[in-house]
Automatic annotation (TrEMBL):
GO MF, one annotated term: alkylated DNA binding
Family per similarity comment: Belongs to the alkylbase DNA glycosidase AlkA family.
Keywords (A to Z) from UniProt: DNA damage, DNA repair
One BP term from GO: base-excision repair, AP site formation
Species assigned in the record: Capsella rubella
Protein name listed in UniProt: HhH-GPD domain-containing protein
Length: 275
């Protein structure tokens, strides 16, 4: 099976991602090794300080999550008015984007690890076996219960030794308080990238997919995603695939709904492949 069919389906709604959205091998390798080369510097979001606090807290201004039809509708109106080319693409799609996943963050991240670099069918088989190890199914997938599973237990259901170490590292960071579902829900996008990429096996691309499809964050631009890069190249008639800086510049007009703009880039590539 070619590498283009071993999709990195590391999100709850992996069916929304085209096969063309596979990250380059170099990026996938750097995620697996935890290399700092997969880290991308992002432009800071607008913030304001609360001066009445002796240790000022930073409040991040953000749009509501993409969990409701009304928020998606607002995003579409903004994108259509701010980008003529993207607006024309949006009009060709009758059905708007849907962001429905409701799994808790820990489960979503564990699932992302299990799905990495596997074809969808094989990944789902292993994931189902993984869930069967816990009392209560998915609701029983908790940091302490994952820690109780040995690498041997996980290998018996088809999880590689490397991925077993990734799952244990994720659980350990929850158990020691570095991460929690509550903290994740409160973190800014930049904080999520900084904190989650400390987990072995989780790189920037995985965090981007997690933020879009699990947390429904509205303004995520996955500059390392091959499908989104191809979509931007085709939309603007570029000669070459855009790099991170050019992606940021071209898609600046999509703020604060770059997640939705990215969703349409995947759809654009899918449509081109069927012609």
């Amino acid at each position: 099976m070619s590498s283009l069919r071993k999709t990195l389906t590391a999100v709850n709604q992996s069916s929304l991602l085209p096969e063309s959205s596979i990250v380059a091998v170099k990026l996938a390798d750097s995620e697996a090794s935890g290399s700092s080369s997969s880290r991308i510097t992002f432009r800071p979001r607008k913030i304001r300080k609360v001066s009445s606090d002796p240790s000022p807290r930073i409040i991040v201004t953000a749009s509501p999550p993409l969990s409701t039809k009304s928020t998606v509708a607002i995003a579409l109106r903004h994108l259509q008015s701010s980008d003529e080319l993207l607006g024309a693409l949006i009009k060709t799609h009758n059905d708007p984007p849907v962001f429905e996943s409701s799994n808790p963050p820990f489960l979503s991240l564990a699932r992302s690890i299990l799905y990495q670099q596997l074809a969808t069918k094989a990944a789902k088989c292993i994931y189902d076996r993984f869930i069967a190890l816990f009392d209560g199914g998915e609701s029983g997938v908790l940091p302490e219960s994952v820690t109780s599973l040995s690498a041997v237990d996980l290998r018996k259901i088809g999880v590689s030794g490397r991925k077993a170490s990734y799952l244990h590292d994720l659980a350990d960071k929850y158990n020691n308080g570095l991460l929690s579902d509550e903290l994740i829900m409160k973190m800014s996008d930049e904080e999520l990238i900084d904190r989650l990429t400390l987990v072995k096996g989780i790189g920037v691309w995985t965090v981007h997919m997690f933020m879009i499809f699990s947390l429904h964050r509205p303004d995520v631009l996955p500059v390392g995603d091959l499908g989104v890069r191809k979509g931007v190249k085709d939309l603007y008639g570029l000669k070459d695939l855009p790099g991170p800086l050019q992606m940021e510049q071209l898609c600046e007009k999509w703020r604060p709904y770059r997640s939705v703009g990215s969703w349409y880039m995947w759809r654009l590539i899918e449509a081109r492949k069927t012609k």
